[in-house]
Amino acid sequence: MIFRDFLRALAQLPERRFRRVLMLGIGLTLLLLAAISVLFLIGVQTLVPDELDLPLIGTVEGITALASWGAVGGMFVLSIFLMVPVASVFTGFFLEQVASAVEAKHYPYLPAAPGLGTYESIKDAVNFLCVLMVVNGAALVIGLVFPPSLPFIFWLVNGWLLGREYFTMAAGRRIGLSAARALRRKHRGQIFAAGVLMAIPLSVPFVSLVIPVLGAATFTHLYHRVTGTRPRD
């Protein structure tokens, strides 16, 4: 059943409304990461001296240039780590558009969803970003200590996080966040399994950027399925 939800979401990906959210999410993500990289590079060039006097070695020049190149490489690696959580948060801002597109095609008989307020959406998205980065940071440290476990830790941790967040948002737009959290606890097994299904492709560069949109659509289907709402097709 979960795979059916995912395949329905995947089949709808080429649609204009899905493409628009995908492009917005990726564009805003790249813009934010580029801005952070520029600020970090400016900070390095401002704070790091161009030459140092070292005992027994003498004056070493070009420190700023070396540190700048190191900063560029470090930010590139860090951007790979940050791209998915940031893209997930930005896509969360446009969840309503993805869920509406899913319902317009598969559940056209439903009344319009009340939706989440702007303040609630932003607050939830920011909280999600903080939790996502902290938990992934901790998982990365554990994975570096036990390298063979890194992929499994990544999948399990992000499966739990993505399932928790996207189901709550998909359900919350119709029944409110409190009721959505209660429903999430009732179906935690299915939600976790669907989250892991979303998390596994996160390991694949570039493919991972599509996952936030597919996740929003998949969990919209999952919400309607567990509440007994049947799709038209």
UniProtKB/TrEMBL annotation:
State where the protein is found. Membrane
User: TM spans, by residue?
Assistant: 21-48, 68-95, 125-146, 152-171, 191-214
> Chief subcellular site?
membrane
Keywords (alphabetical) are: Membrane, Transmembrane, Transmembrane helix
The record ties this protein, via InterPro entries, to: CysZ/EI24 (IPR059112)
Membrane-protein topology: Multi-pass membrane protein
Listed name of the protein: Sulfate transporter family protein
